Amino acid sequence: MSTTFQLDTSTSRAHPTPQPMKRLTVPRIRAKKKDGVTEEPLVMLTAYTARQAQLLDAHCDILLVGDSLGQVIYGLDSTIPVSLEMMANHGAAVVRGSYHSVVVVDMPFGSYEASKEQAFESAAFLLKQTGAAAVKLEGGEAMAETVEFLNSRGIPVMGHVGLTPQAVNVLGGYMARGRSDAEADKIVSDAVALDKAGAFAIVIEGVVEPIAIEATQAVACPTIGIGASAQCDGQVLVTEDMLGMFERVPRFVKKYEDIASVIEKTVASYAQEVRERSFPSEDQTYQPKA
Ligand code: KIV
Hints:
This protein is an alpha/beta fold.
């Protein structure tokens, strides 16, 4: 697949005019794991805006419009208050900003747990509003029937096991999972149940490495680790975390950059130039035609 992109990213004022190209598909993502082996790990990152999607798209297989946008974009305490409308708006922006990656939108807390019919209605709304190809939901065995129901009605589902942030009030915090035998068994059986139900991939979050590896080996579909293991079939991080937008990040995050410092320095320069009237200069000022 060519990764030549011709987005007009030179301006923030015009809609980009890309050369149409073929997007990756859910079946192609699922097929990356063959007979238990994924030769090249899948690359997934979160994206919440069109411009962010433009910048990430060529490098990723999957863009996840995660409900982590609750904390990252809206400054909320957890993902619990995130609404379907928020997910739909950000999902649509990410689809508009991408041409290569499969876009997956998180189902927010309260939009799918009550019944498989509720899940179908919410997932259909998200796919219609955004143009995304799939949804992600949290939970294992308890969600297997729902995953099967959605999948058999045209909605591909990515699962999410281990540390499931929407269950923070039951789990009591965001600590790593799978340290006791009971927890470890549950994570593996949750992953197996989702796989059997037809999930095309499963996020394994915040799980001790041996259990992440056991779950990865136990399922036919690709697993995507976050705070799990390099032996998962792919990896995901919250983009703002890996770019260094925040001072404090979970232990499993590698900060590849310190973008927060770049922004602070840049804004300090702007503020100084405004205050000393050196911005705008001649270059940025209109004069009457002579
Ligand atoms: O909401 C999110 O960003 C996620 C990823 C961390 C997997 O679910």
